[in-house]
Amino acid sequence: MSRVLFSQTPPSALFSRLGKAWAPTLAIWGIGAGTAAVFLLSVTPIVKNGLLVKLPLIGSVYEDKTPASDKPF
Questions:
Q1: How far apart are CA 6 and CA 54, in angstroms?
Q2: Start-end of H helices in the chain
Q3: Three-state SS for 64?
Q4: Which string of DSSP letters, residue by residue, matches 38-50?
Q5: How far apart are CA 70 and CA 9, in angstroms?
Q6: Per-residue pLDDT reduced to its tens digit, 1-52
Q7: In a designed cystine with 59, which of 1, 9, 18, 55 is the match (CB 3.0 to 4.6 A)?
Q8: Contact by Cβ (8 Å): 19, 29
Q9: Half-sphere exposure of 27 (CA within 13 A, CB side)
Q10: What DSSP designation does 51 have?
């Protein structure tokens, strides 16, 4: 007669396996959401001056070169 042996899988192995399976998908969605948020919020002064102007290669694109006399406020 055959015996049936049950072995318990530790929860850490289950989470490790799920993490390895979902990590690439979550990373792609996170990068996409972050990029969309930066582009949608790039017109706000807080994001523009606090983040985009300080980028090393493309910061000069986001600098405000409008003279003070042409600004309404």
A1: 58
A2: 11-40, 45-47
A3: coil
A4: HHHTTTSHHHIII
A5: 68
A6: 688 888 888 888 888 899 999 999 999 999 999 999 999 998 898 999 899 9
A7: 55
A8: no
A9: 6
A10: I
Q: Which pair of structure tokens corresponds to residue 66?
A: 């409008």
Interatomic CA distance for residues 6 and 9, integer angstroms: 10
Residues in the chain: 73
Q: Which one-letter DSSP state was computed for residue 12?
A: H
Distance CA 54, CA 38 (A): 14
Q: Which of 38, 33, 42, 41 is nearest to 63 (CA)?
A: 42
Q: How far apart are CA 62 and CA 12, in angstroms?
A: 46
